[in-house]
């Protein structure tokens, strides 16, 4: 019964209220957001101004520590020995458009852990190493493509008993279930590769999921600053990047971290910690992602910590009713991506994720991009729906609900063409 109630809550509060009506007691009225003061990016904890790139590098290290201690938890610094095993290569995938690889990442020192199984599509027409979008998926590699020979994941899956999931195991009905979110043909035709893995390979997404994931062997569960699931998923993205750097078909200097919803949070945190990522794309990442925590609008710190107690460090819960005391806010997280390109996206039917709060989070990174001689968004005006804006930092608020669509991918491909290639 406890598991059922947890997933009922998850479904309710991750559905994003497409009709614009939030749960009772949560604000969807901009006039009621109230007054808040953001931490100053350009002043360190000792009160000294950040004026140079050297100053910023010191401030950057300070902010990484503050986010680790107070929000996502401390990512273990342990060096983990990996073994990469290519399990399959199809040189004529997608009717000859792509080369498809399947690669497993094994943890040599922790043989009890399942591997991270990566699915990679490379543009067959490319004569040089391909830039790549790297993102985790929600339901197994078999769900991102309609190709019938992708092995069905045997890992724990979100959901109860339905056509796609039976007793938390995927069924054949799950094949291609989220293929529309991953327009692989569009991506490879533009000369990009796609690398994806099931986020549950790193840690299953429920409160006790850590017991069978990487957090069972790394970290300290007795500490309030121990890393949460978002931190584990971000760490897993960096381990996939470790593999990609060994693959001669991949341009390892052009790996773009991308994620939707909770994986959007992980994609930002991965890009903030790991500067090997060339750019970051956060699609409707909301609270704990791109949206400002101090805005009382849509999902709140208290709600996300209550619904998903395993996502963040335990210390984050101490700010549930005193968000103004947080020593950081999300504009500072995204500023850690600078001077690399950043894309933040919202949807007008996803008010739970606070589109304006996501826009403002992106906007307030501007001083750091300016420090590097770059223009961030380049405007302070919240754009009309379906009107992308920005320079090195991009933003759009798409028509529709909490989702990833071809419209989103069209913007991301254009963004990559202009800023990452």
TrEMBL record:
Domain of life: Bacteria
KW Hydrolase (keyword) present: yes
Swiss-Prot/TrEMBL keywords: Hydrolase, Serine esterase, Signal
Any one GO molecular function term: carboxylic ester hydrolase activity
4-O-methyl-glucuronoyl methylesterase-like domain mapped to chain residues: 225-372
This protein's name: 4-O-methyl-glucuronoyl methylesterase-like domain-containing protein
Lineage: Bacteria, Pseudomonadati, Bacteroidota, Cytophagia, Cytophagales
